[in-house]
Specification:
- This protein has 12 helices and 9 strands.
- By secondary structure, it is α/β, with parallel strands linked by helices.
- It has a single domain, classed as Alpha-Beta Barrel (TIM Barrel).
- The chain has a 9-stranded parallel β-sheet with strand order 5-4-3-2-1-9-8-7-6.
- Strand 6, helix 8 and strand 7 form a beta-alpha-beta unit.
- Helix 2 packs parallel to helix 12.
- It starts with a helix and ends with a helix.
- The mean pLDDT is 92.
């Protein structure tokens, strides 16, 4: 059983914070990982900076731009995790563009992720045929391959996506770009339909911005993913590490 499978096996509701590797700095990335883990994160999603982020709103896109401007590379993200992996209880998942995967060696890059301590990988812009191939390979090397499901994805297509997914399924709460939102859409019917075609845990993201949103997600799904609200806090804080701890405690109250 993989670490991701073990984390979800107790049936409790989970929280998955998202951060950008190298933001606000590479040293702080390592400290933020430790802080989020200590504060109760079940899985931590690390976005690997990309010059043309897929579906990311202005907060995360700006964080990625800043990380790239400082010269941070995918290898830096891998190194940051490897240095603290032994101190983390949480699972760790990479969010990485297919362009980076291809340019960094394809399967060899995924293997590097696994060897450095990543427990899963999300490739948001991978196409269907490639996803089937990559899902099979990830299963062979015991790293979860996590697919995204949009609100507009037909349920028949969702079934195809879940067939190559492991770990959990990333369910988008809304269409459009990531970013903080005031309102939480009603996702109950969508979650119910997805559960008819998969037994995988369902993690909901996109616009999950506060404790009330998290509670709403937890009523129907297995995990809440929260990104832009946290990334913004980290960028604004004088002490990002303390801010990460405080934010997660607020979310889990």
């Amino acid at each position: 059983m993989s670490r991701i499978d073990t984390i979800f096996s107790d049936g409790k509701k989970k929280i998955i914070p998202f951060i950008v590797a190298g933001y606000p700095s590479l040293d702080e990335t390592e400290s933020i990982l430790l802080a989020l883990d200590a504060a109760g994160a079940d899985v931590i999603e690390i976005g690997i900076p990309f010059s043309d982020p897929i579906a990311d709103g202005p907060v995360i896109a700006a964080a990625m731009h800043q990380a790239l401007k400082m010269g941070h590379t995918p290898s830096d993200a891998i190194g940051a995790l490897s240095r603290v992996r032994s101190q983390l209880k949480a699972g760790v998942v990479a969010m990485v563009s297919h362009s980076i995967v291809r340019k960094s060696g394809g399967r060899a890059f995924i293997k590097r992720l696994a060897e450095s301590g990543f427990d899963g990988v999300i490739i948001p812009d991978i196409d269907g045929d490639e996803a089937q191939i990559m899902g099979t390979y990830c299963n062979e090397i015991d790293i979860a391959f996590i697919m995204l499901v949009a609100p507009t994805t037909p349920i028949e297509r969702v079934k195809t996506q879940t067939d190559c997914s492991t770990g959990f399924l990333y369910v988008l709460a809304r269409t459009g770009l990531t970013g903080e939102k005031a309102e939480m859409p009603d996702i109950s019917e969508r979650i119910h339909k997805i559960r008819t075609v998969t037994d995988l845990p369902l993690a909901v993201g996109f616009g999950i911005s506060n404790a009330e949103h998290v509670k709403s997600v937890h009523k129907v799904a297995d995990a809440a993913i929260i990104g832009s609200a946290l990334v913004r806090r980290l960028g604004e804080a004088k002490d990002p590490v303390t801010s990460a701890t405080q934010f997660l405690k607020e979310i889990l109250q």
